[in-house]
TrEMBL record:
InterPro entries: Aminopeptidase_N-like_N (IPR045357), Aminopeptidase_N-like_N_sf (IPR042097), ARM-type_fold (IPR016024), LTA4H_cat (IPR049980), M1_LTA-4_hydro/amino_C_sf (IPR038502), M1_LTA4H (IPR034015), Peptidase_M1 (IPR001930), Peptidase_M1_C (IPR015211). This is Aminopeptidase N. Its EC number is 3.4.11.2. It comes from the Bacteria. The keyword Cytoplasm applies. Its cofactor is Zn(2+). It comes from Pedobacter panaciterrae. Residues 488-628 form the Peptidase M1 leukotriene A4 hydrolase/aminopeptidase C-terminal domain.
Length: 629
């Protein structure tokens, strides 16, 4: 009895000690921050925790100006804190609530990265106020004149911070391994609406001053702002769409399923933790299909096809609310943790909503995309490892189908090895256990070993983690739904029609439009066309399908690539218009690259680019300038 009591007493005494220890361990884990080669900041010495942003958006001078007030944790009681800066004009920096002016210097400027902003602080400093103005060349900002918008009357501004462009519009510690909450006050012309990656207003107010709050800690690449003649319409209680007035109704129709998508996602991997989930439809120069800014996914208007055929982009951006925004890649060398997980999650949502066949067909496209990427990069290239090393290069170069599709197939292969049920439980636990944290590839692998593989050598052999993560190309154990989709009548039929057509043996061409109807079926068919295509045969198909006149950007990309390759000049005008109107990087760069393969094509590409460049976002034109100028 006595002994037991002592034991209990000792245990009670032990609890606070253990708690202190565990806090210590947590702190240590946090201070064992992974080195980020794409940020100058030193978070293990002094790190930001909260931002109060107060800015004015001026369309005349095309400048954002104001102040960024940072709450910091000066962990090492240092006399210096380092921020990332790209071309900002900083006028003054002060310390503390009393705003005592301090001094600052810049380190050496590096290509892509900008320069370190070194601010003198004291060991006690908790608050830093940086007064600044953005540069006209800020790589995150696109200032649109009215002509470049749908309404044609008012200007528009939007940001794109991922990967390392946040530093061009806010002085920040621009690493995905560093998280902070934020509040913002944004002043804009009083007939425009401002929106951010935060809790948002639904209507304009007469002052033009808007307040924002992001209560969850996010990394800097998720800072976002858009300003324009924008209106809102709810889809259901927690989802809705923002767009220019003339686009809004079409957008609401197109994305009517977004509430269902959020429900499906929650059923898979746990609660949606961000409050509302809304979309902002941007003008066509938006450089991506979509960008997962928290609370407010930014999307290109080019996915409004009229038939809801391109909405899987929404599944993708929504999935980032778990993979990416909740659990974040620690550095851009771990980018597959963001995009590979998201592609996996995206296809699971689509399977719930559109059925297995749709998901399997996407997988089929994905496999081809991965094989093409490996072919292009070389099957021994280190850039085809999941864990990449983009030190000294722009991390945007790593945004390719290795991260997206090799990442996807790695997870798909684990799913196949352990079974879906187990894998889902594992993923759910992974998201919950790392919520609002950043994770490196190595940390993920340790978690995988501890929680799923658990030393089971059969599983180890089945999965071959090292071959996927630290090896090139596509490992031979890749799992996929080996053409199950093709056994279904529809796609097997199209496969057959394509092979007969490719041999020029299709007698009754009316079967083409009878059997190949939906956008996905058309895209599938175009992908099966033989490399021995000719311009004349493209004209034959165009008579049936009018692919050249398609408004589905996936079909346009696939068809225009063939048109350029096979000199099908009847599509020239459409291609030119497409390249001038549309700034979606990954849908226009492949076309320019296809063009420049011949001398005449190069000449034409230069002519078109001259007209198109002024419409593009800095991110887009900086990428194209590299191979065409
Ligand atoms: N986060 C990416 C966009 C991105 C990646 C911006 C890297 C900057 C650097 C976004 O989630 C994305 O993947 N967009 C795709 C969607 C597609 C895969 C469904 C796009 O824009 O095409
Ligand atoms: Zn993504």
């Amino acid at each position: 009895m006595f002994k037991k009591a002592v034991l209990i007493k000792n245990l009670i005494l032990l609890i606070p000690i253990l708690m202190i220890l565990s806090c210590k361990q947590k702190e240590q884990a946090a201070s064992q921050l992974v080195e980020d080669p794409h940020s100058f900041s030193k978070p293990s010495i002094a790190v930001v925790e909260h931002l109060d942003l107060d800015i004015k958006v001026d369309f005349e001078s095309q400048q954002i100006s104001g102040k960024a007030v940072w709450k910091i944790n000066n962990k090492a009681k240092s006399n210096e804190i380092i921020f990332d800066d790209s071309q900002l004009n900083i006028s003054k920096i002060t310390l503390g609530a009393e705003e005592k002016e301090t001094t600052f210097t810049y380190g050496e400027e590096k290509e892509f990265l900008g320069r370190p902003l070194k601010v003198v602080i004291t060991p006690e400093t908790k608050l830093i106020t940086i007064y600044y103005t953005t540069n006209a060349q800020a790589s995150a900002l696109q200032w649109l004149n009215p002509h470049q918008t749908a309404g044609k009357k008012r200007p528009y501004l939007f940001t794109q911070s991922e990967s390392i462009a946040a530093r061009s519009w806010i002085p920040c510690q621009d690493s995905p391994g560093i998280r902070f909450t934020y509040n913002a006050t944004v002043s804009v012309p009083n007939d425009l609406l401002a929106l951010m990656s935060a809790e948002n207003p639904e209507v304009k107010n007469s002052t033009g001053i808007y307040h924002f709050k992001q209560v969850h800690p996010i990394p800097s690449y998720l800072l976002a702002l858009a300003v324009g003649d924008i209106e809102f319409k709810a889809v259901d209680e927690r989802t809705g769409v923002y767009a220019e007035p003339s686009v809004l109704a079409k957008a609401v129709y197109e994305f009517a399923d977004m509430g269902k998508m959020v429900n499906a996602a929650e059923k898979l991997y746990g609660p949606y933790r961000w409050g509302r989930y809304d979309l902002l439809v941007l003008p066509p120069s938006f450089p991506f299909g979509g960008m997962e800014n928290p609370n407010l996914t930014f999307i290109t208007p080019t996915i409004i096809a009229g038939d809801r055929s391109l909405v899987s982009i929404i599944s993708h951006e929504l999935a980032h609310s778990w993979s990416g925004n909740l659990v974040t890649n620690a550095t851009w060398n771990d980018f597959w943790l963001n995009e590979g997980f998201t592609n996996y999650f995206e296809r699971r949502i689509d399977e719930e909503i559109f059925g297995k066949q749709e998901a399997e067909m996407q997988e089929e496209f994905a496999k081809k995309a991965l094989e093409d990427a490996v072919k292009e990069m070389g099957d021994t290239s280190k850039d085809t490892y999941l864990k990449t090393d983009y030190t000294g290069r722009n991390p945007d170069e790593g945004t390719n189908d290795i991260a997206y599709e090799k990442g996807y197939f790695f997870l798909r292969t684990i799913e196949e090895a352990v079974g879906r049920e187990k894998f889902d439980t594992f993923l759910r636990g992974y998201f919950d256990g790392h919520a609002f944290q950043s994770v490196s590839t190595e940390q993920f692998l340790a978690y995988l070993n501890e929680n799923l593989i658990k030393g089971n050598s059969d599983l180890e052999k089945k999965i071959r983690v090292n071959d996927w993560v630290y090896g090139p190309g596509v490992p031979s154990n890749i799992a996929y739904s080996k053409g199950l989709w093709a056994k279904d009548g529809k796609f097997a039929k199209i496969d057959h029609i394509a092979s007969v057509w490719n041999k020029n043996e299709l007698k009754d061409t009316s079967v083409l439009t009878k059997e190949i109807v939906t956008s996905n079926e058309k895209k599938f068919f175009i992908n099966l066309l033989s490399p021995e295509m000719t311009a004349k045969r493209m004209a034959d198909l165009d008579r049936q399908f009018n692919f050249t006149g398609s408004n589905n950007t996936d079909i346009q990309l696939a068809w225009y690539t063939l048109a350029i390759r096979h000199q099908y000049t009847a599509a020239n005008k459409r291609i030119e218009d497409y390249l001038i109107e549309n700034g979606r990087m990954w849908h226009i760069i492949p076309l320019y690259k296809e063009m420049i393969k011949t001398p005449e094509g190069l000449k034409r590409a230069k002519e078109i680019y001259k007209k198109a460049r002024p419409n593009y976002h800095p991110m887009t034109y900086l990428a194209i300038d590299k191979f065409l100028k």
